Structures are given as structure tokens and as C-alpha cells.
Amino acid sequence: MYSAEQTRNLQNLTSSLLKKVTAQNVSKSDIKDMQAVLRFHEYRYYIINDPLISDFEYDSIYKELEKLEAENPSLITPDSPTQRVAKGLTKDFPTVQHLVPMLSLENSYNADDLIDWDRKARELTGLDNIEYCVEPKFDGASISLIYENDFFVRGATRGDGAEGDDITTNIKQIRSVPLSAKFSEYGVQQIEIRGEVLMTKKNFKKYNDQLAEQNLPPLANPRNAAAGTLRIKDPKEVSRRNLEAFLYHVSYYTNIDAHAKLNNLLNTHSGSLEMLWNLGFRSPEKEKKVVKGIQAVIDHCHSFEEQRDDLPYEIDGMVIKVNDFALQDEMGMTTHHPRWAIAFKFKARQATTKLRAVEFQVGRTGAITPVAKLEPVSIGGVTVSSISVHNEDYIKEKDLKIGDTVLIERAGDVIPQIVKSLPELRNGDEKKIYFPKHCPVCKSELAREEDEAVWRCINIECPAQVVERIIHFASKDAMDIRSFGDANVRKFFELGFLKDIPGIYNLPFDKISELDGFGEKSISNLKSAIEASKQQPLHRLIYALGIRYIGETTAKVLANAVTYLPDFKNFSLEDLQNLEDIGPKVAGSIHKFFLLHDNIKMLRQLEALGLNLRNDKSANIVEGNLNGQTFLFTGTLTQLKRSEAEEMVEKTGGKLLSGVSSKLNYLVVGEDAGSKLEKAKKIPAIKILTENEFLQLVKPQ
Ligand code: IVH
């Protein structure tokens, strides 16, 4: 797409624009350059995954361009990077006709199916050996895009294959879809291309984590997340979700001049992928393989299946296409699928089974979680017999009934989820699922907060909650007491050997040694694991306490904010909210925990038993806004001397680091920042700040 020379020129242009932006010196005459530079960096970031500038630098040029364009509207082109942003909400998605119907694909599941298909293809064409193009079968939502005279003009969903929904505005939010592309260089006037919109595994996880934070049930797979996002009527939200688009099929095009000799890339499918790649699209140019004969196809499919879990996005198989377009035309299509292509489906990660019963479990925060008991079913080698159905609203939304046939999915490393029930298979014997009014363990009445989907047992003495709190305390990411998992905790609790968290450090080993399965070796292992846990750092202990909303990251922030854990009882809500990333909800929860005398008593007990309640690191931290946060400066600062800035950090309780590593919290970027910035961009936990943002942060509140 960009030659080495163009890349160099655009990078130089970027540097000079960044200087002008910092000096507040950009003007109307820079608009065109700014557009070109931003387009270039979108390509580096979204298509080839090799950014050359930081998000912050991109944003600073973008913001200036937005300002200049507002002052000079006549200079706005439809493919300016600012034109992706839509104002307000989408009213509805009008129905539009595809230029060519979007057909489906025939499926195959094993080598024999492919051998049969190849035999038919050879019979049909009279050829001995066919050239195929093999590429991933992306597992997302299909789209069709139209470009006219080099501009993106329309994006649509598949719909029923003949007509789909016009989602042009939402497609513009996908930064890997170019708003313009020089199809004219290939002699093309109008073109319809097909592809798949995806959410990468990483973004999907992030999205599900956000849902979990809001107590909302997760989505079953990235495909549903992508398809759902395309239908959102708020383009800003679509943009936030960071979708990606792979374009893999040219379904239709017209020539600029009826007699124009077309570029020969448009003679084959692999050539069309190359053309799309050259024009800045994320086509499977790097993933495709052109081979002769079906055996090579089969080998490639198998080797790709092995890499499936290492890819950053989900694929559910491979697609095999006859490479030569003239041959494709000769072979034609049925009403359902083209004869020149076939999907090779990988081992299914979906299965149907029966929902036999729903049990209600009490978690450590008292949350009641309904768990569906299923007829055991194997999905991709793992047997699934029970699956969380999250909460009452989720059961209603998925229309679940006992006795239903349900479709379940295990997408990569996502915990299995119910995708949907299949009401069409009901016989009338299915039973409604009733949510209990009382705690299934301690029988106290359940309560549901206004803005929450979760019913809770609010009796903190509830034995189920106590056991779950102990299990959490000992778990791997908390105090990591090996050989003290679920089963042992439950057993000791039931036998009365263990009543609360401090009890872990006072277990009656004389009695335990009389139990079956507790020989000398296992007792000694358990004893040393318990002993070792006393040395765990403070942040692990904080996380282990199981305070609501306190995950591992917040636990670290808290651990850095005090020298002695019980001191939190002196923190006001406001003090807590002044800590990094702690909002009112989280602050409220911490405050409540440390107000309870019983909790402080438990902490003192733990201390007497030898646990560490102090944060050694914070001993030398000055109290202040930055509370042990780490900083590094790079580039030339314009408002402060480097030494002044460093002094500010130390005065307000922060620390200075000499290099970029995962220990760094903030990199403050001045002019002409170089390799440190590049390195920091690769570590997501590092926040990159401008000098102004830094000053905001250290300003006394
Ligand atoms: S070609 C006329 N190539 O799979 C042929 N489809 O199950 C058009 N899909 O509807 C399809 N990756 O949404 C093609 N590399 C790929 C694909 C792909 C995913 C989707 C597409 C299609 C569905 C069929």
C-alpha cells in the first residue's frame, strides 16, 4: 500500500506536523497533509498492526484537524478520518438490496468430504488438477461494502442474502475499513466486496470484563458481540468496541471504460485479495495459500486448525475457493451456494443438549447464581454438564425452561455459555424456572438492589457465603494455599474444623490426620502451604479478603496507598476516591468493609497469627497524590525543566524509574520522544501523558 519512500515521507510529515501542533502553529494549509498522515497511521495500526506513533500523538493531530475542518468546512473530504464520527444516534437501518445475492457456503467436515468435492469440481471442469486458494473462515458477522469512484458509499448486513440493513454509519466506525481506496488504478468504477466483521479475542475479553463489572452476564462468543455491535444505534459506542473487518470476496464490479484492459489481478481470487490488500483493506493476503490439488488443501486445513487457538481472532474453519475467476464462472452456483467454493469446518465448539434442572448457588458476596444442570455433552473434547445462567433476567431473555433443548458453545478459552434455547423442539412438558425467594442455604429472605440484576442473601453469617469466602481466600490468585482447594475447605467446614478465615491458620491437624486420604505427606504439604501464605504480599491479602468490586488491580492500588492495612478505617469516601481508578461504587464497598468492627477484628487476628498487614514498599513513600505511582519522562519538556518535573513526582509521593518496564505506571512524553515511547506503547498498563496531563495530575487537589 505505501512504498518505503512514501512511508519515510509520511513519517517525516508526521514529525513536522506534531511539532506544529505542539507549538499551536497548524493552519488551514496543513489540512490535506493532516488527513493523509492520519490515514497512513490508521493503516499502520489497523491493517498491518505496526504503529509508528502513539495513540496520544495520533489524537493530538486528529483534534487539531477537527478544529481546522470546523473552521474551513469546504476542505472536508468524505474520506477525511474525521468523517467516521457521526453525530447523534442512528434512527433506523433502511433495507437495501445487495448488487449480487449473498450466498452461503457448502460445508465439509473431513478429508473425505473435500476429496469428493474436488472430484466433482474436476468432473465439472474437465481438469485433472485444480488450483485452489485456501483462507481462514472468519467467525463473525458478514457484511457487504460498495465503493464508487474510489469512495466508500454503502455498507450492509447480510440480511436474507438478497436484502440487508444499511449500516453505513456503523461500518465507518471500523477503522480497518478505508473510507476511500484507489480502485480506479485497477480500472474499477463500482465494486461490491464482502467480508466479515469481527471482535478480536482480546477486545472480546475486555468487553466481557466490562459487562461483568456491571454485573451483566457475558456474551457467549465474539461473533455475537460483533453482530450485536453492528446493530447498535449509537455510532460512538460502536467505535468504542473496536471492531475489525476482514474483506475476502469481490462479488461484483464495473469497469471505468467498457474496453479497459483490466489489471490481471482481477483474473484470480488470490489476485483480488492482493488488490484489496494493496488498496489498504485487511484482506487475508497474509493468511491465504494458493495450492494445486486437494491433498495440499487438506494439509493446509489441518495445519491451520492446529494454530486456531493462537490466532488473535476466532475462525471456525477454512474456505477453499477455485482460484481462477473464469473457471468459477464456468462452474456456476446453486440457489444456496457457489459450486466453486466450500467451507471446511473445524471441530465444533457448539452442541445441543437438554437442560435438566436449575440449581441455585450462593456466592461469597451472597449473590445467588442459577446454574443449569445439563445432560453431559462433549464440546471440542471437553464434557460440559453444568453451566451458569447468571441471573433471573438472563433466564427470561434466553427464554429457558427446564426440559428445553439448548445450544451451548465453548468459544476458545471462554467459559461455556448457553447461546439460546430451541423452543421449536418443545413438547409441552417443559417447566418454568422459578427463582427462589429465600436463600437455599440459610433460608433468609433474598434482596435485590434497584439497579442490579442479582438477588442476594444479605445474611453475612450465611454458611454458604462463609465457605465461599474461605475458598476465595485460599485460591490461586489470592493467598495461593496449594492443596487447600474447594473440596477440602468444604469438608473441614462441614466437620466443624474450620469456621472462618483465621481458622485456616489454626486447623486441628490431629483430627484431620484421622480422616481418609490425609496421610503424613499430604498433611505436611498442607501445613507448609498454609505457612508459606503468611508471607504473601499485602495486595494478595487485600484481594483475598473478597471485598466486593475489589479485583487484583484495585487490590494493588490499595496496597500501595497504606503502610498498615487497618489504617483504611481512617479513610473517608473522598480519600478513597482520590486513589487511582477508584469510583464511588468501589470506594463505598471498601469504606463499608473497614467500618465493620468484625472485619478489623479479623485482620488483627490474622496479624497475631503471623500474616503480613504492612506494606514494606510504602514505608518510604511520602503521603501525597501520587502514592507510590511510578513515572518516567522522555523527550523535551516545554513548560518545566526535567529536574523540576522529577522533583514534583517525588514531592507528591510518586517514584521515578529509569527505564520502560511493566513496573512503570506513567510515561510523560515531551517533544521528539523516541524509543522509550515506542516501547511503552507495547505495554498496555502504561499510561502515556502529555506534559499538560502530567501537570493536571500533580496539581494539589
Ligand atoms: S466466501 C459466495 N470466504 O461464511 C461466497 N466466506 O458459512 C461468499 N465467511 O456467508 C463467501 N470467512 O459470511 C467466504 N474467507 C471467507 C469467509 C466466509 C467467513 C462466512 C461468510 C459466509 C459464511 C458461510
Tell me what the structure shows.
This protein has 701 residues and is of the alpha+beta class. Helices cover 35% and strands 19% of the residues. It has 24 helices and 22 strands. The protein is globular and about 90 Å long. Bound molecules: 2-(butylsulfanyl)adenosine. 2-(butylsulfanyl)adenosine binds next to strand 3, strand 7, strand 8 and strand 11.
Topology:
Blueprint lengths: L3 H19 L8 H17 L7 H17 L23 E3 L8 E3 L2 H15 L5 E8 L2 E8 L2 E7 L5 E3 L2 H5 L15 E11 L2 H13 L8 H9 L4 H6 L3 E12 L13 H10 L10 E4 L1 H14 L7 E8 L2 H7 L9 E5 L4 E13 L5 E12 L2 E7 L3 H6 L7 E5 L7 E5 L24 E3 L6 E3 L5 H12 L11 H9 L14 H4 L7 H14 L4 H7 L7 H10 L11 H5 L6 H12 L1 H12 L21 E5 L7 H10 L3 E2 L9 E4 L5 H7 L5 E4 H8 L3
Parallel strand pairs: 2-11, 19-20, 19-21, 21-22
Antiparallel strand pairs: 1-6, 3-9, 3-10, 4-5, 4-7, 7-8, 10-11, 12-13, 12-15, 13-14, 15-16, 17-18
Helix pairs in contact: 1-2, 1-3, 2-3, 13-14, 17-18
The structure holds 2-(butylsulfanyl)adenosine (IVH).
Q: Could you list some keywords that capture this structure?
A:
701 residues, alpha+beta, single chain, binds 2-(butylsulfanyl)adenosine
Brief description of this entry?
The protein has 701 residues and is α+β, with helices and mostly antiparallel strands. Helix content is 35%, strand content 19%.
